[in-house]
Amino acid sequence: MKDQKGFTLIELLMVIAIIGVLAAIVLVNVGAARDKSADAVVKANLVNIRSQTEVYYSTNINYGGETASCNSGIFSGDPSIEMAIASAEEASGGSAVCSSSDGAVGTGGNALSWAITVPLKSPSGSGFWCVDFEGLSKETSVLVPADINTTEVSQCP
After folding, report:
1. CA gap 118, 84 in Å, rounded
2. pLDDT higher than 60, residue 151
3. pLDDT mean across residues, the chain
4. What Cα–Cα distance (Å) separates residue 110 from each residue in 67, 83, 104, 135, 143?
């Protein structure tokens, strides 16, 4: 009888199958970690926006023009706030919803309150991260209302 050295075809196929299963498990976990890191970027940008808006308010005594858009009126073109909103949108893969209000119906004056909501990327949780002028920063399942013709202040739901 000959001494055979090496592995049989069945043994090699079993090793390849086990490696494939382990690789699939690792890839699923890496994808979840990537989504969680994107959520952390969204949250960090919105926390930075909250502090930048207070600097803006102390300089201008308002938050810019009353608006339901992130691209006009709110914070009157402050580049650092606009960049933080754009960075949060890029990390989440969605669009920010902004609202600012002067607290009066139909006047279109200078905003005295604001709120921003950005979708989160990870499938777990409520779906959106919201910050507002009162310093609130929380996860929510509802977007900021975009109706500015109201006496309500803009704040996280």
Report:
1. 11
2. no
3. 81
4. 9, 22, 10, 19, 22
Going 132 to 128 to 107 to 81, the CA torsion angle's sign is positive
Overall average pLDDT of the 124-134 stretch: 82
- State which amino acid sits at residue 123: P
Measured between alpha carbons, how far is 53 from 154 in angstroms, rounded to an integer?
14
pLDDT at 27: 82
Gyration radius of the chain over CA positions: 24
* Cα(70)–Cα(94) distance, integer angstroms: 13
The two tokens of residue 34 are 């990537």
Greater pLDDT, 145 or 41: 41
- Classify burial at 41, counting beta carbons within 10 Å of its beta carbon; exposed 0-12, middle 13-18, buried 19 or more: middle
- Cβ contact 150:105 at 8 Å: yes
Crossing angle for the helix pair 9-60 and 79-92, to the nearest 10 degrees: 160
pTM over 0.85: no
Cα separation values, 75 from 65, 137, 149, Å? 7, 18, 18
Q: Going by DSSP bridges, is the β-strand pair 97-101/113-119 parallel, antiparallel, or unpaired?
A: antiparallel
